[in-house]
Design a protein that fits this description.
single chain, about 425 residues, alpha/beta, seven-stranded mixed β-sheet, 15 helices, about 35% helix, elongated, cytoplasm, EC 2.3.1.1
């Protein structure tokens, strides 16, 4: 941050996410490749910050490269079927060896605490255990996968009790049967099963794969689960990316509100994905993430946070909380992933068949993305539905923006009589009118 003001503005911009995420459960899964790349210490710092923000974190690690390394040391060749490891006795021993080593590495990473580092005063106590009950995958396409399994049950009540103590939980890609057998699982299956069983609010895959792009090379930022299924069927994604997307879809279709696929190549990618509007990965949800709708009383706090800076610099007339609560039915909001990013109010004057659009505001972080125009069209449609023929605005700084969208300059005399009496001659706002 170059100036104190920039720091303050940045901190305020992430505050809505901090409030929204408090007490939520996130399942964060990462592959063994992240550890091989040396990115584990930084990820531990970022996840520790989530814990400090009262987010309940369940961590799931993968171990494919570590298992391959153990097999190579024993001169055992790995076998696969449709990308899934065939786990014989030797491979299972390698999986156990790798999981044990990774667990210790992860515990060490969360034990950081040097002064003047992000982990100072963290005192994170990560808990692991036999929380995953598994069963064998069996024979698929005539191939016996032997000791490769899939999750049968997650000890959700026990995990929730641990999370309530502010300790993150660590799950390895191993599961155990009631008869005491161990099975090698995929990290993706464990993460999805845990997210579903825990009713997690988010499932986050921190991946070795690059940002997903469509057939034209355009980055894929957001998908509903239905759109994601269409992307899978189109068949243009690389195999690894498609595998992650397949599991993200399964999670969302089973009740997890949001799933994220985030490349780990960028420093702090998990934080950037969670605490910025556009993120740095691909977000999948069961429904579309963004909604443009009439405001409710629950939106008052979000509206106040949005308009306060503009009231402070004189762009908007100050409105107290009580006034906004009384007039909340007049407001519309644009919401993205639970955060209010834009609003506007419509005040009708039925006798004149005119309506005033007021308090049109879009978060500065997402301006120039068309949200202001979308809100304007929404308010215009509301006005038409109410039988109004004209829409007017009073503005001191944005007259050109409105004129580009069909508003014409007018005088105070063109306003409804009731509105003329309330006109603030000290502000000398410009009057602009648009026929609907």
């Amino acid at each position: 941050m170059e100036t104190p003001n920039q720091f303050v503005q940045w901190l305020r911009s992430v505050a809505p996410y901090i409030h929204a995420f408090r007490g939520k459960t996130f399942v964060v899964a990462f592959p063994g490749e992240l550890v091989t790349a040396g990115a584990l210490p930084v990820l531990a710092q970022d996840l520790s910050l989530l814990v400090a923000l009262d987010i309940r974190v369940v961590i799931v690690h993968g171990s494919r490269p570590q298992v391959a390394e153990q097999l190579a040391l024993r001169n055992v060749e790995g076998r696969f079927h449709n990308g899934i490891r065939i786990t014989d006795t030797a491979a299972l021993e390698c999986a156990k060896e790798a999981a044990g080593e990774l667990r210790l590495d992860i515990e060490a990473a969360f034990s950081q605490g040097l002064p003047n580092t992000p982990m100072a005063h963290a005192a994170i106590r990560i808990i692991s255990g036999n929380f995953v009950t598994a069963r064998p995958l069996g024979v698929i396409d005539g191939v016996d996968l032997e000791l490769t399994g899939m999750p049968r049950k997650i000890a959700a009540e026990t995990i929730h009790a641990i999370l309530a103590t502010d300790s993150p939980v660590l799950l390895s890609p191993l599961g155990f049967s009631p008869t005491g057998e161990a099975f090698n699982l995929t990290m993706e299956d464990v993460a999805v099963s845990a997210a579903i069983a825990l009713h997690a609010d988010k499932l986050v895959f921190i991946t070795e794969t690059p940002m997903m792009v469509d057939e034209g090379g355009i980055e894929i930022r957001e998908l509903s689960s239905h759109q994601a299924e269409a992307v899978l069927q189109a068949g243009f994604l690389p195999v690894d990316a498609a595998f992650y997307l397949q599991h993200a879809i399964k999670a969302c279709n089973s009740g997890v509100p949001r799933a994220h696929i985030v490349p780990f190549e960028m420093d702090g990618s998990a934080l950037l994905e969670l605490f910025t509007h556009d993120g740095v990965g691909t977000m999948i949800s069961h429904e579309n993430l963004e909604s443009l709708r009439r405001a409710t009383i629950e939106d008052v706090g979000g509206i106040i946070k949005l308009i306060e800076p503009l009231e402070a610099d004189g762009t908007l007339v100050k409105r107290g909380r009580e006034l906004i609560e009384r007039e909340i039915d007049q407001f519309s909001v644009i919401e993205h992933d639970g955060v209010i990013f834009g609003c506007a109010a419509l005040y009708p004057f039925p006798e004149s068949k005119m309506g005033e659009m007021a308090c049109l505001t879009v978060n500065p972080d997402v301006q120039a993305q068309g949200d202001g125009e979308r809100i304007l069209k929404h308010v215009e449609n509301r006005a038409r539905a109410a039988g109004l023929k004209q829409l007017f605005v009073l503005t001191t700084r944005t007259s050109h923006w409105f004129q580009k969208r069909g508003f014409k300059p007018a005088t105070v005399d063109a306003l409804p009589k009731d509105r003329q009496h309330m006109y603030n001659w000290q502000r000398k706002s410009q009057v602009l009118i648009k026929s609907l």
